[in-house]
Amino acid sequence: MEKETKAFQRVYTKLFQLTKATVSLHAKGIGYDELAIVDGRLAQVVKIMEDLVTLQIFGGTEGIATNAEVIFAGKAPTLKVGDDLAGRFFNAYGEPIEGGEILGEEREIGGPSVNPVRRKQPSEFIPTGIAGIDLNNALVTGQKIPFFADPDQPYNQVMAMVALRAKADKIILAGMGLTRDDYLYFKNVFDNAGALDRIVGFINTTEDPPVERLLVPDMALTAAEYFAVEKNEKVLVLLTDMTLYSDALSIVSNRMDQIPSKDSMPGSLYSDLARLYEKAVQFPDGGSITQIAVTTLSGGDITHAVPDNTGYITEGQLFLRKDSDIGKVIVDPFRSLSRLKQLVIGKKTREDHPQVMNAAVRLYADAANAKTKQENGFDLTDYDQRSLDFAKEYSEKLLAIDVNIETDDMLETAYELFGTYFKPEEVGIKQQFVDKYWKNNKN
Amino acid sequence: MNTIGNVTGIIANLVIVETEGTTAQNEICYIKHGDTRLMAEVIKVVGNKSYIQVFESTRGVKVGTEVEFMGHMLEVTLGPGILSKNFDGLQNDLHKMEGVFLKRGQYTHPLEMEQKFDFKALAKKDDKVVAGSWLGEVKENWIPHKIMVPFVFKGEYTVKSIKKDGEYTPKETIAVLTDKEGNDHEVTMTQKWPVKVPIKAYKDKPRPFKILETGIRVMDTMNPIAEGGTGFIPGPFGSGKTVLQHNLSKNAEADLVIIAACGERANEVVEIFTEFPELDDPRSGRKLMERTTIIANTSNMPVAAREASVYTAMTIAEYYRAMGLKILLLADSTSRWAQALREMSNRMEELPGPDGFPMDLSAIIANFYARAGYVYLPNDESGSITFIGTVSPAGGNLKEPVTESTKKVARCFYALSQDRADSKRYPAIDPIESYSKYLEYPEIEEYLNKTIDEHWTANVFKAKDILLRGKESYEQINILGDDGVPVEYHVRYWKSELIDFAILQQDAFDAVDAASSLDRQNYMLQKSLEVADMDFKFESFEDVGPYFKRVINALKQMNFSEYESDEFKQNEKEFRNILKEQETASKEEEMTAEEKAS
After folding, report:
1. Could you tell me if B55 and B36 are in contact, meaning their C-beta atoms sit under 8 angstroms apart?
2. Closest residue on chain B to A318 (Cα)
3. Rounded to a whole number, what is the distance in Å from the CA of A24 to chain B's nearest CA?
4. Where are the domains of chain A?
5. Do B549 and A317 touch (CB under 8 A)?
6. What is the DSSP annotation of B474-520?
7. Would you call B331 helix, strand, or coil by DSSP?
8. 199-228 in A: which are within 8 Å (CB) of B?
9. What is the DSSP pairing of strand B14-19 with strand B4-11?
10. pLDDT-based confidence at residue A5 (cuts at 50, 70, 90)
11. Which among A144, A343, A344, B524 is least surrounded, fewest beta carbons within 10 Å?
């Protein structure tokens, strides 16, 4: 059942086993992770036992017959990288969606990780104009951070906005299970902003087979590494949606009869996600890979295995929440966190930034307590009332995602609000900053 | 002659090898993949099939590929020069690796074998020595690095000859020892040791009897860790585990800090690489990096090497403990190591225990924590390993196997609370949930009261009591409403808030507040308790919060200023003045009452 075709390719035509996602056949001399074409569909070796080779078919096994033609490629999945990538959109296999060829060097995707001693500490502030991010959760080049959002929240819009304002040399969009509408939305937004030549897209839409998604982030990150390492560019990678990516992982592990771990996710979910997220890096020569991802939640539940593992890997998370008091979507200051902000706030931004940030969030927390009191029907103290008023204005002027101002203006706005509603000792920031920046609106 | 085998099966990093000769559990072997050799460890043997976990990616590996078994377990090389290095989990020197990316199959020597060290003999001819005895010392950074009788030596030996003081490389023979049978053994400055076997070259391991000062108030004051003790920090993501660990490694009073970055973020390791060479050790004045060694197996590095990384770190800690040093070992995070065990157990199709973890997880964790401790060495000197591990419980739920297994063995429990983190009360260690078993040790109590203050432990328990009563009052206020409870409840609640803000909370990013000496902690505890002991008279509950906020602010400003500086004293004066207002107020009240009476 074996015949020689081109130089190293061997063709097999007898399948031993078929499942929904995999096929197995007897073959020799096959390497682990190697690619194959099964009846015209791309597949990858996921298990070898003696001469029984199991292949995962990315496009699913529907209609594959036991006499399907299997051609082994003798290599792992690759992407052709070069300047030619810029301004184009590709499918999960790295083929241009609108046809045509790519000129460039062929690289294996899912390559090795960066030696930690060759990394540089991230130190470059990425201003986005959104105070809920810049003031409370400043982003830094080389960081990886997801939006934790329910499916009805406008995360793709916010992400596109952040991407355009971030002044990146390249924006690489990895769409996994993206609706066709959202794909066209991204294309339009980037096109209207005149940024299309800075964009590279790897897109798996809801119309495509789900398992194909597993290739998308590796394709995008291989392209990102090319621009960051070889061209010393600042690359921003957008990963949307990582929950759908994880779902594809669970489909495959299920088909491979692996014992599922929490929430029917594979036990290796942490390592699988970390392998991708850890590609975020600041190189000493100026190139960097920054990742902004989306992890959709179900009903805001962050204890689900996907957001939970993600939170342990990424450098913080951004929560979007609809604030019913002002009728706008805000960046939730309690649950959002940027772990790398300490590297830039008060250093690349004004000295009082950290203290102002913490004070404002603390006061916002007081307002939340006052609100609980109010809802339980208790009387409010004068302080409670003031903090509630403060919270509303803070939400409107700083937390809402439609804010677009400079960082210094965010700090000034904060002092204005402090001065309007509080006395310095109620705010509790260092005396030297009170002396220098405090705005006494009460008198 | 080494055993040779051939690959017969591959599932991710689990490879099955058929051999003719003998293989052993945990034996190291290499897969000859093209020009590279991929390191692996035997984890199961069935008949002539060995199951090996590969420490690298198995991409491209084929059935039939040759595998060579090395006849030894995973070993580390111990000798002078470890301290200035950064290793991966298999003790490869990361700086010697070529290129930006870690190439698979690249292994580098952990030490500089050509470097000359200034040797000074400590033993002399005809001395009787045992494993771990000090033969001589060399200077390694600022540490007098002891050259010891290799730990594998059994029984008593006689020093036949020892090199004169002078410069030697680590490979040169520096002493010849004769065993009881009259055989000679050459000893160099280096030795090898299998990481999974504890180094037991000590005479005795007593119960810990003193505390390790960390500079972190919520630990030292409320729940101190003993020198040679064990503790663990579980916490959901975002609750400040990493910042707390970094702060510990910066400020703890240890001779050496060894950090196993096990399956965590690479940027956190980079932070240490970048900042520690610049930061001063507050005690020695030297750079922090000089006392810090990192074993980096970040989350994107091979999963199988995670387990190796914590053992490698522990073995290096044991090596330096045998030199009479005080070691702090941090492992972040032990959950990632447990997950690596789970991945492998799953691939081997073992019957899973709770949450899919292997059944022997508890035993593995217990054995590991047991390697920490305070020891007396053969020459009656002492050394210690204080071990603190972090745990990353899935979903922040502390009822999961890794947390529960660790709780059984670690003596200190520092529970990070999401609520405290959300309200930015850092470090977010829950004062009521957390505990230190060491506070119950009479020898520790005696030590604390002798070295800090005769009333120290009494004060600590008093502060804990105030926190608990404050919490109860707070719950009552929440149920009954501000005016539904006596004003006294508000005072009680605010007294606990004062302890929370002045003692528990600490700004890890403030140059002064980041670390607090025991002296200073004692001073601040006394100030806080002084307030707690006062009787306050408030007209209405509405006056309580604002007044206490001013007291708290004054105490916080004291925390932010250099201890005993003018600024500190100024802030203390302010604190006094605010307290006086109440004293005068209550006096006036008493006077009016008296007037009325008369």
Report:
1. no
2. B238
3. 14
4. 2-72, 78-343, 353-437
5. no
6. HHHHHHH-GGGS-HHHHHHHHHHHHHIIIII---TTSTTTT---HHH
7. strand
8. none
9. antiparallel
10. very low
11. B524
Q: Is the bond leading into B473 cis (omega within 30 degrees of zero)?
A: no
Q: Which residues of B touch A340 (CB under 8 A)?
A: 267
Largest Cα separation within chain A, whole Å, is 92
A210: DSSP letter: G
In this predicted model, what pLDDT tens digit does every residue of A303-312 receive, in sequence order?
Answer: 899 999 999 9
Q: How far is B37 from chain A (nearest CA, A)?
A: 16
Q: State yes or no: cis peptide before B378, omega within 30 of 0.
A: no
| Residue pairs between chains A and B whose CB atoms are closer than 8 Å | 205
CA distance, residue A338 to nearest chain B CA (Å): 9
Segment among A94-98, B166-170, B187-191, B590-594 with least mean pLDDT: B590-594
> Structural domains in chain B?
4-73 (2.40.10.170), 117-189 (2.40.50.100), 217-417 (3.40.50.300), 456-597 (1.10.1140.10)
What single string gives the DSSP state of each residue in B528-576?
A: HHHHHHS----SSHHHHHHHHHHHHHHHHHHHHS-TTSHHHHHHHHHHH
Residues of A within 8 A of B270 (CB-CB) are 116, 119-121
Q: Which of A30, A49, A271 sits opposite B299 (nearest CB)?
A: A271
> Is there a contact between A311 and B394 if contact means CB atoms under 8 Å apart?
no
- Residue A67: pLDDT band (50, 70, 90) is very high
HEC profile for B174-187? Answer: CEEEECCCCCEEEE
Question: Which residues, at least 6 apart from A21, have a Cβ–Cβ distance to it below 8 Å?
Answer: A56, A57, A60, A61, A211, A251, A252, A255
Sorted by sequence, the CB contacts under 8 Å of residue B245 that are 6+ apart come out as B233, B259, B330, B332, B388, B390
**A430: helix, coil or strand?**
coil
Residue B590 has pLDDT above 80, yes or no: no
Residue with tokens 């060759």: A118
DSSP letter string, B381-421: -EEEEEEEEEE--GGG-S-SHHHHHHHHH-SEE--B-HHHH
Angle between helices B456-480 and B442-451 (to 10 degrees): 100
* Torsion sign over Cα B417, B422, B428, B432: negative
Q: Are strands B412-413 and B373-376 parallel, antiparallel or unpaired?
A: unpaired
Q: Where are the alpha helices (DSSP H) in A327-401?
A: 353-375, 382-394
The predicted complex's ipTM stands at: 0.87
Q: Which chain A positions have a beta carbon within 8 Å of B296's beta carbon? A: 116
How far is CA A320 from its chain centroid? 14
As given in the structure block, the two tokens for residue A402 are 């439609």
Q: Which residue from B minimizes the CA distance to A354?
A: B509
CATH fold, domain A2-72, is Elongation Factor Tu (Ef-tu); domain 3 (2.40.30)
**B412-413 and B230-234: which strand pairing?**
parallel
Percent of chain B with pLDDT over 90: 80
Residue to mutate among B237, B422, B425, B577, with most A CBs inside 10 A, is B237
CB contact under 8 A, A365 and B424: yes
* Token couple for B43: 């984890």
Radius of gyration of chain B (CA): 28
How are beta strands B326-332 and B256-262 bridged, if at all? parallel
Q: How far does B11 lie from chain A, in Å, by closest CA?
A: 5
Query: Could you write out the DSSP letters of every residue in A366-385?
Result: HHHHHHHHHHTTPPPPHHHH
Cβ contact, residue pair B242, A262, below 8 Å: no
Tell me the three state secondary structure of residue B31.
strand
Give the integer Cα–Cα distance in Å for B200 and B179: 20
Q: Is A428 helix (H, G, I), strand (E, B) or coil?
A: coil
Pick the CATH number of A78-343 from 3.40.50.12240, 3.40.50.980, 3.55.40.20, 3.30.360.10: 3.40.50.12240
